[in-house]
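Subject line: Sequence and fold of a protein, written as structure tokens
Body of memo: The sequence and its backbone structure tokens, given next.
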Amino acid sequence: MTQSSARSDIMRSAVLAQVGALGPTSRASLARLLSVSPALVTQITKQLIADGLLVELDHSPSQGGRPARLLGLVADAGRVIGVKVAADHVTVVEVGIDGTVVRSASEPFDAAAATAIPTLATLLRAFIAGGSDRPLLGVGVGVPGDVDDQSLGNVDSTQLGWSHVPLGDVLRRELSLPVLVENNVNALAMAELLHGQARGHDNVLVVTIGTGVGAGIIADGAVLRGHGGGAGEIGHLPTQEDGPRCACGADGCLESLIGEDALVTAARERGIIGEAAGMRTLQGRANEGDTAAQEAFSHAGHLLGRALAGIVNTIDPEIVILLGEGVEAWNHWSYGFEPALRSGLMPRKRGVPVAVETWQDDRWAQGAASLVLATPFDAAGRTGEQGRLVRERLTEPSPRDGSQGAAR
């Protein structure tokens, strides 16, 4: 492939991703967003229309002069598989190239089993086989742990009990498809950048609360991964010197104090809920007005607010986005969170907006799918060979069984 044809393929992918993220868009807007000439956008979009990937829609409103013709995405032009791996289950989604979830499934999974990875591959093959005939661009996998490189996909995860697991290599071999692997919160941050409230912002802090506590940091329009892919592990901020032992082996980490297991354990010890009860019961008690249950969430919110104040002071985001299973009880967390956050911020940063998103479990898997959808924006080449293969499939759609353009 020549340099000019490679650039053309990347531009085709970038145009598709922009229209998928923004909705119907004019050629002039695309040229401005992609910082290229209107003539190049006209040439690229002409090719995409001929290939059946874009369609011309109605004219946009005009303030004078000739109204612009909008371009829309042909939603059935391609599909992506997103996977969320948890210790006890796997959630899988199929999304269109605009990021919309077409179908989803959740299956029991034992991450600690010796056959965990082959079992995961079998689950994914079955899910893929039940999909449509649209071209399959690739598979994105989100895991709760450190990933050395998206394109390689070697995983270290205390939650899953995995150490140096070559997840990406095994799945590429088993599925014959491009596979990108990333920390699940980083993947969510990418989904927010493409489709959510982070869109239009260059510096964002995405925070998840629930089973664990994590963060995705968007700096200058890109997800910050750090030296070994472990940036954003805010759940392991040292918070209480004599606190409970964390899964990472340290004492008093933030996650060991406000993660789901920590909140449930503390509530049982204080007699707020019974020994066999869990988070659903604790939240129900708080909803019913139980003061002790409400205080448990409020205290967790206070600790979270203090921690995030320090992070916001350090990285200076434009917006903080909160999501995850824990936000279902956010009305109880917020009593402690807001005062702690605002009082801990530097004066000029106290107005930083905090957006709390509603939560669905398949959002994790949708975030993983965004790893594949985001490859056109991979100017730094972080997706490596797998990103190149995804772009090839996007510009020259291959058969759904992965027999052409498979991962190498």
